[in-house]
UniProtKB/TrEMBL annotation, chain A:
Name of this protein: Amino acid adenylation domain-containing protein
Stretches of the chain forming a coiled coil according to its record: none
Top-rank taxon, per record: Bacteria
InterPro entries: AA_adenyl_dom, ACP-like_sf, AMP-bd_C_sf, AMP-binding_CS, AMP-dep_synth/lig_dom, ANL_N_sf, CAT-like_dom_sf, Condensation_dom
Pfam families the UniProt entry points to: AMP-binding, Condensation, PP-binding, QueC
Positions of region (Disordered): 1254-1277
Keyword list, A-Z: Queuosine biosynthesis
Taxonomic lineage of the native organism: Bacteria, Pseudomonadati, Pseudomonadota, Alphaproteobacteria, Rhodobacterales
Carrier domain boundaries: 1275-1349
TrEMBL record, chain B:
InterPro entries xrefs: ACP-like_sf, PP-bd_ACP
Gene3D superfamilies, A to Z: ACP-like
Protein name stated in the entry: Phosphopantetheine-binding protein
Ranges where the Carrier domain occurs: 3-82
Coiled-coil parts of chain: none
Length: 1388, 84
């Protein structure tokens, strides 16, 4: 008998997903569905085998095979039925063990789909003891299919006649022919995906180790008791649901989500849940894969109980089921979750006459995208749930897996015991991993004055300022005088004395004098805005004020008795000695007014003692006084030298409004220890002066990156100890410490380490429970040196200083900082928990900025937040898929973007630009007539599909073509092969063009435009024009797509209010082309284009864009290339392009601009019907390996840090009728510079939620580019101005300013200032590091430079200009630099 | 086909019997939900069918046993929707 022909069946989407998953890990048993069915009783093996054969003969999926044909899976059904084989183990010493061993081994072997979709054996353990083993590939089955099989096998075994079941082929064909999904259904699932590009947090913050997916199945000891309790809970009317299974599912989902929330810290939990997808009885009887995985999203809210979370899960489940349709589980939805809940309300019937025990075995691996899979089932209808958890073993070790399971059970037990109890009150574990306690440390003095007094007879310098100094003895005397003078003004213990002055020789004495008089000092920096000074003094009611001339300018009249810092002071004696309070420091307050943190003497003395012991050379320690007086990190520099007998080196404020004294500290290298913020360290690294004496840097104030530490050691000195000190003002400067170790600190950020002596750190969740190790929680600080509270604000004090429930000390301070405990026992800092922001080390309460905005009469409402482009909830155009994170793109109420709308208006008018194939022929005829050399035309061939097709169409018309390709060093080999094959096939001449300047062009393009294409495009045009000119070729043919025409040329502006003719459009395009090539940029400079490219050449050589004349859908292009050209889709770029460095451009662009480099071009492809929206979104959803991107950066000679940082910063939304300029002036008088919003968005009214709160999601995104200054652009006039303008443009990444614009207004800040100074010095211009701030316009700076003597040109570090600065992007981001986005990439 | 109410209920009945139950007839008072006759997915398909024949959405708060437990209950629910 000949075998009937096999029939092919289309794969369903679910099958295709599984096929892809298996292709990625071909050796792994990811999708083995293994049944071990124990059968006891008188079994007839032959009858069993015959029954199975009948089942196989009846169900197509049991006879299916899969093959890979050119990368595409093909599913065919054969007629062959292989016989069930037996394995007799009854003679074995331990038949059961032997059977289990055999099964375990076979279960872990992938099913070879080219042979069959299953393997099976009937194992004999004894005469009445059998196991039927069935291992199926998931591509051909699911849980419900297992039940169908068993039921059919039972029928076939007991009665000979088995009716044929419905066939899977019918289902698959029906799906393939089904009408497209209802748009409302599609929109529901799209909405689940929008704004959730990032995966969920992994349990316990674990990170995956790469490798083959492997997992362990843990069987939870769920048991009959718990099952009964769970059923009892469901029987309670409180847990009613429209169907039994739905209630049970929602309850399991609530328990699971409640637990996931606790072990991930996520508040929106997305669980992947399969829906069985068998609506009709026919589907229910079919053997095959029906299930699809869809996300179930549920928010866990504060105060949730099992009841409330159940309610939310139930309504989420109803929503889920109402939108579940065949085909909704797509590649986009399956990536939305990493935890799966597989609730299977399936019962598998026993085989008649046999005791049947159905077990579902784990093959040792599951889909690597899933961290956890929870399975709940009761196949044998025993009433007891089987609960199993598959844990990705690359994620958690064996111990952690067991602990995880135990924690889940303890949450279940407590929640079921009292479903109305807040879940956050349930302790997952009695372990307190996340409560850390520092050592005891030696006893410290009661006051810093005691330790300082020990040195009061020393003649060694205590304060050095320039050429002047005070010895410790002189300091003691001078401070006594201040104390006496203050006492005479009425200062007594615990009365506040404001100190408002610039840094000077006398300042430390004045501060000590306050303490000696018994008072507490209140430091105010001399650049504090006057309104803020007035607000603080108004609250403080100080007993006296010490101020220098600068400070006195800020003071409101008649606030308090004033003591001039520089006053002649008469002889004095020590005052009454320390009161209880040492100082009050004002920080940004959430109520909108600054709040004063009160620190007592004993706590302060303990900190200074610990700091001196931990950071100093264990003896006299010299430190610089170089930071702002009101900032608590300055206190370390002010007191550690005095208590150790060392010296304070005073570095006065530098001129120009931005204090760069820190640079002098490193230039002079005269101290032992420097305390500074990461932002200041970044400046020092940029300056790059190596140091020898400075041995320790204490870095505090904000997150510290390892990249910055590595660079600090490389640039400043490998001997440096870099100490990351963490601590809010409320915990007295610093309470945790970690010393950077390049060998072990390999993550992105430096940990904050472990608690200081006497301190306790508790990382707690919102319910106040210590979080499990790895889970994010809020840092709570206890111990013996907390602040006393907030100055005259008991409510605020009580809100954050709370009794310590763990009895580690009297109080715990809730810091609002997020952190997690690592497995090595150190703590990672993870940013702020609340709305409070930290920019450049300064805490910013948005409320305070809002209060300043609201103090303007014309402002009726204000909302302030931090913003980075590309963050926040994104929506996509329902037509083209463009995300509204792209600047200037907004969606209308129908969800359609501006560009689609504009396109509607110009689509017809733009037709004038397009021509017919005859037009192309005419162009080429003209070219042939005009040529003076061998070729009619140059063809620019990138090797991609568009230019490949264009080449063939061109070759139909002429073979006198010179084909050119720019080999930029990153062309894929596949593309090069394509190019060689095609040009050989057509017999055309071909050249690869190269330039040694390519990498520099890439660097410039990345720095200016955040992409590589811009530089690359311009290079190919310039080089091709040169060839054309040199060889008398009159035309250059391109394969630019029609989408690219619309993106770059046929813009709506061109058609506004008129319908231009073809000639008019062409004239506009030519003008744009001349401007493009006339631009004096790196391509022009490096390729010397001005030598061969003038207007005449551009008019003479015509660009012929082939797709202007030929309109062809992309499917036809692929079809044509398949049929007629030796063109193969490149396999090594991972996308439909031909250039490997593209990935770098995409990476940089996404990081910096917040959206994908191809978002706009692909949206055009969709608009013009060249791609579907889904295809475009799929291609845009790429995950570029940062390591690969960094490697490419290194390859082109750029360090990651040389790239501009992400845009963004503080944004203020204001409702009111007021101009931005007026508002900025208003704010400048009230806020410190670092609290000034970077973006001001003025609206008629702020959008509100139904609760009346500002609807953050509805706020428009600010334009990521700062607005252009209002002034007209003043061109450079002198050579110095021209040179400086070029440097400014390069360093600021924008060109939209002139020589009279203020540095701050064009997005400048300190790092840019230093880069500019270094670049200017390299160009031979005498620009000091603070000059850019002193002379805030290019014109003023140029005048200063021209007045000064020229400096000798600094030697270049490398011939091809090493990057001037190489800080981590994060460090630069901390400095809040903003650049402008430039015009599009590819206007020729 | 005189009574539009009866007509639409018979459409719902037809959907249950043909699409969900392969021709098995159901009585007006026959328990559909707690009997396990319809599982969760089928119930939601039934809700969608009720929306289709009535031309009105069924809000999530109405997805309750008392509204969908039997064919009679569904009829009563539709009537209540009419008068709401």
């Amino acid at each position: 008998m000949t075998e009937p022909e096999a029939t092919a069946i289309p794969l369903t989407q679910s099958q295709a997903l599984i096929w892809t998953g298996q292709s990625l890990a071909p050796e792994s048993p990811l999708y083995n569905m293994v049944w071990r069915i124990g059968l006891r009783g008188a079994l007839d093996p032959d009858r069993f085998a015959a029954a199975w054969a009948q089942v196989v003969a009846g169900a197509d999926m049991l006879r299916a095979r899969f093959e890979d044909r050119q990368g595409q899976p093909v599913q065919t059904v054969t007629q062959s039925v292989s016989a069930l084989s037996f394995l007799d183990l009854s003679g074995d010493a331990d038949p059961r063990q032997a059977a289990d061993n055999w099964i375990a081994s076979d279960a872990a072997t992938p099913v070879d789909l080219t042979q069959s979709t299953w393997r099976s054996r009937l194992l004999k353990l004894g005469d009445t003891d059998w196991i039927w083993y069935l291992n199926q590939h998931h591509i051909a089955t699911d849980g419900a299919a297992g039940a169908v099989l068993l039921r059919r096998l039972g029928v076939a075994y007991t009665q000979a006649d088995l009716p044929n079941p419905p066939q899977f082929a019918d289902h698959a064909r029906a799906l393939a022919e089904a009408a497209p999904l209802d748009p409302a259904i599609r929109a529901f699932w799209d909405a689940q995906a929008e704004g959730h590009r990032r995966p969920m947090t992994s349990p316990y913050g674990a990170t995956r180790q790469p490798g083959q997916p492997a997992s362990q199945r843990l069987r939870l000891d769920f048991g009959a008791d718990r099952s009964a309790r769970l059923r009892a809970c469901l029987a309670n009317p409180r847990f009613a649901a429209i169907s039994r299974d739905l209630g049970a599912f929602a309850l399991w989902a609530a328990l699971y989500a409640g637990w996931l929330h606790r072990i991930t810290g996520d508040t929106v939990i997305r669980i992947g849940a399969p829906f069985h997808n068998r609506l009709t009885p026919a589907q229910q009887d079919t053997v095959g894969l029906f299930i699809e995985m869809l996300p179930l999203s549920v928010e866990v809210q504060a105060g949730d109980t099992l009841e409330t979370l159940y309610d939310r899960c139930l309504s989420a489940a109803i929503d889920y089921l109402r939108h579940a349709r065949p085909g909704t589980g797509t590649p986009e939805t399956v990536v939305l979750f990493n935890a799966v809940l597989n609730f299977m309300p399936v019962q598998i019937p026993p085989l008649p006459g046999l005791a049947t025990d159905v077990q579902w075995l784990h093959a040792g691996a599951h889909d690597g995208a899933h961290d956890l899979r929870l399975h709940v089932y009761d196949f044998n209808a025993t009433g007891t749930y089987t609960v199993e958890m598959d844990v990705n073993t690359a994620l958690l070790d064996a111990l952690a897996r067991k602990a995880a399971a135990a924690q889940f059970l303890s949450l279940i037990d407590a929640a079921l015991a009292d479903p109305a109890r807040p879940l956050e009150q349930i302790a997952l574990t009695d372990r307190r991993d996340s409560i850390l306690t520092g050592g005891d440390g030696p006893a410290s003095p009661a006051s810093v004055l005691d330790a300082i007094a020990a040195h009061e007879s020393s003649a060694a310098p205590a304060v050095i300022c320039g050429d002047t100094s005070l010895s410790h003895a002189e300091l003691a005397k001078l401070s006594d005088r201040y104390a006496s003078a203050l006492a005479a003004l009425g200062v007594s213990p615990d009365r506040p004395v404001a100190v408002c002055a610039r840094r000077s020789l006398r300042l430390p004495a004045a501060v000590l004098g306050v303490l000696k008089a018994g008072g507490c000092f209140v430091p105010l920096a001399a650049d504090t805005p006057p309104d803020r000074v007035a607000a603080i003094l108004g609250r403080l009611k100080p007993a006296a004020i010490i101020a220098d001339a600068a400070g006195r300018d800020l003071l409101p009249p008649d606030t308090a008795p004033l003591l001039a810092l520089e006053a002649e002071l008469s002889e004095g004696t020590s005052g009454p000695g320390p009161g209880s309070l040492a100082y009050v420091i004002f920080t940004s307050g959430s109520t909108g007014t600054p709040k004063g943190v009160e620190v007592a003497h004993d706590a302060f003395a303990r900190y200074i003692d610990w700091a001196a012991r931990s950071h100093g050379p264990q003896g006299p320690t010299d430190m610089p006084l170089c930071s702002a007086l009101g900032f608590d990190l300055t206190l370390t520099s002010l007191f550690v030298p005095l208590v150790t007998g060392g010296a304070i080196h005073v570095y006065p404020e530098t001129p120009g409004g931005t204090d760069l004294a820190i640079l002098e500290v490193f230039a002079q290298d005269a101290v032992d220890v420097v305390k500074l913020t990461p932002a200041h360290l970044a400046l020092a690294v940029a300056q790059g002066t190596p140091v020898a004496r400075i041995s320790t840097l204490i870095i505090g104030g904000e997150n510290l990156t390892t990249a910055l530490c590595r660079k600090a050691r490389a640039r400043l000195g490998a001997h440096l100890t870099l100490a990351n000190e963490y601590g809010p003002t409320e915990a007295v400067v610093g309470c945790m410490l970690h010393r950077f170790d390049p060998a072990t600190d390999t993550g992105a950020n430096v940990p904050i380490g472990q608690p200081a002596d006497g301190m306790t750190i508790a990382i707690l969740d919102k319910g106040g429970n210590p979080v499990p190790a790895g889970v994010v929680g809020e840092i709570h600080i206890g111990g013996n040196r907390l602040a006393r509270g907030y100055y005259r604000d008991p409510d605020q004090t009580a809100a954050v200083f709370r009794p310590d429930p763990f009895d580690t000390g009297p109080m715990l301070y809730a810091s609002g900082d997020l952190a997690r405990l690592r497995s090595d026992g150190t703590v990672d800092y993870l940013g702020r928990a609340d709305q409070q922001l930290k920019l450049s080390g300064v805490r910013i309460e948005p409320a305070e900025v809002e209060a300043a905005l609201l103090s303007h009469d014309a402002v009726s409402a204000a909302h302030v937040m931090a913003w980075t482009p590309g963050t926040g909830k994104a929506a996509r155009c329902t037509r083209c898929g463009l995300s509204d994170t792209v600047p200037n793109v907004t969606l209308d109420p129908e969800g359609i973007c501006d560009i689609c709308r504009a396109f509607e208006g110009i689509r017809d008018a733009a037709q004038a630009y397009f021509d017919t194939p005859e037009g192309l022929q005419a162009e080429l005829m003209r070219a042939r007539a005009r040529k003076t050399g061998k070729y009619d035309a140059i063809m620019l061939l990138s090797g991609g599909k568009d230019s490949a097709y264009a080449l063939y169409r061109l070759a139909d018309l002429t073979r006198d073509v010179l084909v050119l390709t720019l080999d930029n060093g990153f062309l894929s080999e596949g593309a090069k092969d394509n190019i060689r094959r095609m040009t050989a096939d057509l017999g055309l001449e071909h050249r690869f063009l190269t330039t040694p300047a390519m990498n520099e062009i890439f660097r410039d393009s990345l720095q200016r435009f955040s992409n590589v294409c811009q530089g690359c495009f311009k290079t190919i045009y310039a080089l091709a024009l040169k060839v054309a000119r040199d060889e008398g070729i009159p035309a250059i043919v391109t394969g630019l797509s029609r989408g690219q025409f619309f993106e770059t040329r046929l813009t709506p502006d061109l058609f506004r209010g008129r319908t231009p003719s073809r000639a008019e459009i062409e004239a506009v395009v030519l003008r744009a082309r001349k401007a493009y090539h006339g631009m004096d940029d790196s391509v022009a400079r490096l390729l010397g284009t001005h030598e061969f490219l003038d207007e005449e050449v551009l008019e003479d050589i015509r660009f012929v864009d082939l797709y202007r004349y030929i309109d062809v859908p992309v499917s036809e292009i692929y079809r044509f290339l398949d049929a007629h050209a030796p063109w193969v889709r490149p396999g090594d770029t991972g996308r439909s392009t031909n250039c490997l460095i593209n990935d770098l451009g995409i990476h940089v662009h996404s990081r910096r601009e917040g959206y994908h480099n191809y978002a706009l071009p692909y949206a055009w492809d969709v608009r013009l019907g060249h791609k579907t929206r889904d295809e475009a979104l799929r291609e845009l959803d790429d995950d570029i390996d940062p390591a690969k991107a960094e490697a490419m950066l290194a390859q082109i000679g750029l360090e990651e840090g040389a790239l501009p940082p992400r845009r963004g910063g503080l944004v203020a939304y204001v409702a009111g009728d007021v101009s931005p300029a007026e508002l900025r002036a208003h704010l400048a008088a009230r806020l410190p510079r670092e609290m000034m919003p970077r973006h001001l968005v003025i609206l008629p009214a702020l959008p509100l939620t139904t609760n009346g709160k500002v609807d953050r999601a509805a706020l428009p995104r600010p334009d990521p580019v700062l607005s252009t200054p209002d002034s007209a652009r003043e061109p450079a006039e002198t050579a110095t101005e021209r040179a400086l303008l070029e440097i400014y443009q390069r360093m600021l990444g924008r060109e939209d300013f002139g020589v009279t614009d203020n540095f701050y207004d064009i997005g400048g800040e300190s790092i840019a200032a230093i880069q500019i100074a270094l670049a200017a010095a390299e160009a031979g211009l005498a620009v000091g590091s603070t000059a850019v701030f002193e002379h805030q316009t290019i014109r003023a700076l140029a005048q200063a430079v021209d007045g000064a003597a020229p400096v000798p040109t600094a030697p270049k570090k490398t011939p091809d200009r090493a990057p001037l600065i190489d800080l981590g992007a994060e460090d630069l981001a901390a400095l809040g630099r903003v650049r402008t986005r430039k015009a599009r990439a590819d206007t020729p | 086909m005189t009574d539009p109410r009866a007509a639409r209920l018979s459409q719902v009945q037809g959907f249950i019997e043909t699409t969900l139950l392969r021709g098995r007839a159901i009585g007006g008072g026959e328990e559909l939900l707690l009997s396990g006759l319809l599982d969760s997915l089928a119930v939601m398909a039934l809700v969608a069918e009720v929306e289709r024949v009535s031309g009105r959405p069924v809000p999530p708060t109405d997805v309750l046993i008392e509204n969908f437990a039997t064919l009679d209950a569904i009829g009563a629910y539709l009537d209540r929707q009419d008068s709401a």
